[in-house]
């Protein structure tokens, strides 16, 4: 015992459970006024400092990392985060760490869980996924001195709205779509459409940017780029609709998509009269998806693959640097951008009509 | 503090880390002889009882449940366990519990982890997946009085080789394949093949049994059943090969498969000359898969769906009964067999040739 007060110290002295102490700190509305006052008095008396700051002083570590498990959306793109979870759990265990899961409806709810996870379950650190513009989670964790790393870049310039600089690992989506376009250009395609998400999502904008750069490099004029660029919500049905409209009005000979779901919809439109993936009909155009999901392998869809095992390993390296106290101020070494790879299958085999 | 010695008590008195105490208990070969003797003396002196037995006495619970995360095999069938994990995490949190993940190469390694997870991380209970004949994990947990539930039946008769009776939740695979056969029989099919796994796996034998029962009920003679029944390893390529052989020699008009992977292989053979799922060719026969994976939805494959959210909820109910001490001796109520449902799509729409 090093004599520093812990949550347990407070709980014992106030004769309440650890959960009650956590509630006093994180959800005071759940605690009766009398208990609230008594516990707060003990916290002041013993000088207990909740999570973050206190954790930096502790020598004992739980060696447990928290990860919010996100809802599976259509079961296709969600597979990427499931594969990241598998890789993270395996690689964490090789380094002597465990992964604890939790769920939350949104960022605010996720932040609401951090306190309990730190105080009651004594987690050492967090891995955050699905970073986005205006993400409030990273600021909270920095303020409370909690070690963390994100799988996904911060999508605001450093300093925006008090967003902190922090360690992250991400995959270069623009490099992936650029490689897809160049692969199609090598096969003779020039009219290459992009089926992506509405502007404003960091991941989606990044994937669109790679397509745009490669198309501009090939000298495609702006009015043609505007016609070939479609934004739609994610989904197989949405991809099918986008493809039908493009084929009718713009007549591309190839499609690069922001997700395998969209690409499957494009494929369905191309391969059949009635939008059924397995029905008959010759390939009318080439298609490349993104994320190389199991569905892509099953139906022969070319796709951009993320190096998820490497991403998990690098994320853990960044966390362990922080936990061993050797991180210092964040530097460029704390930002790891990994290159994806293009997996070529039958769906992109067709050359443009001559 | 109730005065009962904990792992922490032993660690402090022996001036070692909690991890070292755990190693003394679970991996003594990792500990120097001198330390081993000192820690063992303290354990005897304070009367510390590791996990199991000691846990029953404790009033403080971690409210953490352990789950071994299995390796994804082909990314298609593994999706079922990922969906179970999502459901378990969400439903556990609603009940005030968290899920901690770990990995292990085999059952022995999994058992090797239980001790540390119980002693150092103070887990309350485990959820086991992929039960199989001769499963040694359940006996270990029963011996050590650790609460657990399995998602999957014990595949030996109770009492075999000291296998304990224990709480479990499972999905009735035989009912699923029987429903698939009856759906095909209703459309006029009589020559319905079964493409399943080699005999000996509980899950595989169960799925084969449902097909067999429904075929026998329709009066199909044994020599025909033998011809229509194929056993192969799981996989798309394996399903494609099995379908080619059956079509050449036995000429079924419909296929029921033990997995979506096998069914996708059958579909690939049916829909194209070159084994490509998305190539042309009219449907020659009807196909039903098992597990209703995202791939099945994407390619229009009929499939048997497991009620995974319900399975996770019932598994947690059985665990919480044990943790609240109200379980008593296992009864039939501790065995929950859920009915799957058949999801009909285009792949099973074709009627037999007249």
TrEMBL record, chains A, B:
Residue intervals of the HTH lacI-type domain: 5-59
UniProtKB keywords: DNA-binding, Transcription, Transcription regulation
Top-level taxon in the UniProt lineage: Bacteria
InterPro entries: HTH_LacI, LacI/GalR-like_sensor, Lambda_DNA-bd_dom_sf, Peripla_BP_I
GO molecular function, one term: DNA-binding transcription factor activity
Xref: SUPFAM superfamilies: lambda repressor-like DNA-binding domains, Periplasmic binding protein-like I
PANTHER family xrefs: HTH-TYPE TRANSCRIPTIONAL REGULATOR GALS, LACI-RELATED TRANSCRIPTIONAL REPRESSOR
Record-given protein name: Transcriptional regulator
Species of provenance: Actinotalea ferrariae CF5-4
């Amino acid at each position: 015992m090093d004599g520093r007060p812990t949550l347990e110290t407070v709980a014992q002295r106030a004769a309440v459970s650890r959960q009650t102490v956590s509630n006093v700190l994180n959800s005071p509305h759940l605690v009766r006024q009398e208990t609230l006052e008594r516990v707060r008095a003990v916290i002041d008396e013993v000088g207990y400092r909740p999570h973050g700051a206190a954790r930096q002083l502790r020598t004992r570590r739980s060696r447990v990392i928290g990860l919010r498990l996100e809802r599976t959306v259509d079961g296709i793109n969600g597979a990427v985060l499931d594969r990241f979870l598998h890789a993270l759990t395996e690689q964490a265990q090789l380094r002597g760490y465990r992964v604890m899961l939790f769920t939350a409806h949104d960022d605010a709810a996720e932040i609401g869980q951090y306190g309990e996870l730190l105080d009651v379950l004594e987690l050492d650190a967090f891995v955050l996924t699905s970073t986005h513009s205006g993400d409030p989670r990273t600021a909270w964790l920095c303020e409370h001195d909690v070690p963390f790393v994100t799988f996904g870049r911060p999508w605001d310039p450093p300093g925006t709205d008090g967003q902190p600089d922090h360690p992250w690992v991400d995959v270069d989506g623009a490099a992936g779509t650029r490689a897809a376009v160049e692969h199609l250009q090598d096969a003779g395609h020039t009219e290459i459409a992009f089926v992506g998400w509405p502007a404003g999502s960091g991941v989606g904008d990044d994937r669109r940017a790679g397509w745009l750069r490669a198309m501009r490099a090939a000298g495609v004029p702006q009015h043609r780029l505007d016609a070939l660029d479609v934004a739609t919500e994610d989904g197989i049905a949405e991809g099918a609709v986008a493809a039908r409209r493009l084929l009718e009005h713009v007549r591309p000979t190839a499609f690069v998509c922001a997700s395998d779901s969209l690409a499957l919809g494009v494929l369905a439109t191309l391969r059949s009269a009635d939008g059924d993936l397995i029905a008959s009909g010759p390939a009318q155009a080439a298609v490349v998806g993104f994320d190389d999901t199991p569905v892509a392998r099953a139906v022969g869809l070319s796709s951009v693959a993320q190096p998820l095992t490497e991403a998990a390993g690098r994320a853990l390296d960044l966390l362990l640097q922080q936990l061993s106290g050797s991180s210092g101020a964040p530097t460029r070494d704390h930002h790891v951008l990994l290159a994806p790879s293009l997996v070529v299958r039958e769906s992109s085999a067709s050359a443009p009509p001559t």
